[in-house]
Batch of 4 targets.
Target 1
Amino acid sequence: MDAETMNTGLGIAGAVMTLGLSGVGSGLGTGVAGSAAVGAWKKCYAQGKRAPFLLIGFVGAPLTQTLYGMILMFIMIGRAKAGAPGLPLMLIGIFAGLSIGVSAWLQGRCAAAAADAQGETGQGITNYFAAIGVIETVAIFTMVFSMLAVFAV
């Protein structure tokens, strides 16, 4: 394998790591939020209350981080194919993917608490989504600033 092929391969591997790590975080986040939503619905049913469908919004919140990882991945693949240095792309991919993935995981934890609180009280939906949105911002900032780094290498 020649050096150019190896360089491109490292860059593409970093791009795939971005998506993979973002996806792991989304999986963890949606899993935690989904479990809490099911528990909140069960409490509602047990108390004879209507189970709020809007809890599904909490469950789905961490999915967007996978999209951010995918957007960054496509940009990184393009840069890798254009000859950008592979090692920096790989490092960007690892750290951006970790940051986006952890954001998704912790967003899911917040969404789980929100689902429980909303299911129990029926109040506070705006505040809960605001907190979830602040956590989302970490992933958005990571994606945007990582894009700047990708174009700088």
Note: The chain has a mean pLDDT of 97.
Target 2
Amino acid sequence: MADPMRIRAQAAGDKTTVRVLMAHEMETGQRKDAAGKIIPAWYIQEVTAQLNGKTVMTAQWGPSVSKNPFLQFTIKGGKAGDKVSISWLDNHGDKRTDETTVS
């Protein structure tokens, strides 16, 4: 399993800004290793964000997203103390979910 995501969620007025740094290799399947063999594709396909258990964002990604991707988005209606969870699923079936509290 991958390293934990670094998530920050900060409320300002009626909006909450969420910043996420995900640890993932994100291989395209087009690079070759030192021996000349193709490195198999391995990338995040779906990212989901939830606020207090309610889905507020879903993204479909592909192999063109960079290694250790950074994601930032704004949620309308979040406030301090709310729970924000981020989940991803990659093309190998690996999953990761992490959570933070809005400050």
Note: The chain has a mean pLDDT of 93.
Target 3
Amino acid sequence: MKRSRDNSEAYTWGDHCSGWHLVKSDGLSVIEELMLPDTKEVRHYHSHAQQFFYILKGVATFVINDETLTVSEREGIHIRPKTLHQILNQGKGNLEFLVISQPTTSGDRTDLEQQSLTTL
């Protein structure tokens, strides 16, 4: 089946950000996400899932552990399990990207506020 925003399960997250489940299974998750300007994700990590973020539109700022990186359109970044990370849209326009997770991140997320870094 062809997938798009129009025929995929939609959800909202964070501060008025949007997502669409293009593939949703235990072994693989592919989500298209939209972040408005001046929004950010909570710093977190996944115990089992690895993720690949691919930027479709805009420029993403990532905080990976204690390093800040900029990822532009048509670039991606691989996040390994147990890696503390956060994505921010510090631009003036919308940020659109794909996030591919293997396995799914459902039930596999720990926000920084919930656990000390020394236990990672």
Note: The first strand starts at residue 9 and ends at 13.
Target 4
Amino acid sequence: MDKEERFCRNCGAVVPPAHPYCSQCGTKAGDVPPGASATPRGPGPVPPPYAYPYCGPPVAPHVRTEGLAIASLVIAIFSFFCCPFIGSTIAIILGYIARDRISAAEGRVEGESLAHAGIIIGFASLAIHLAISSVALIVLIAVHPWRDIIVYGASLAFAL
């Protein structure tokens, strides 16, 4: 056995001389105590490699939610009650921008479902309010006392 070669007391993995901790299980490395097996670990599951010194399992990087996706959804819902045409248009634009940013971030940003919901609700709000406005305009023309003047003016405009 080489004088420089050391084994982990916990899992039996070979530990390089410059490393004070085992790269397999994270315990402090040292010479094998008398009577213990000095062979590396046999077949079977190998514990996950942790960076030494051992400080716990690896932590996944923080993933943030795209702010424009949240804004798109909030503005789309708000557009049902106030400023329907402007609010819906802004919600749709913000939703598409958020979707592009999320796809470009490659997993570091989430919120694609929020952006889709903002786009869908924005289009739905726009369609509903456009239908309501069209019906209201038709009813207003039908019952207005100057209906004949309005219809005559429209026919003159289309005749030109």
Note: Residues 112-143 form the longest helix (32 residues).
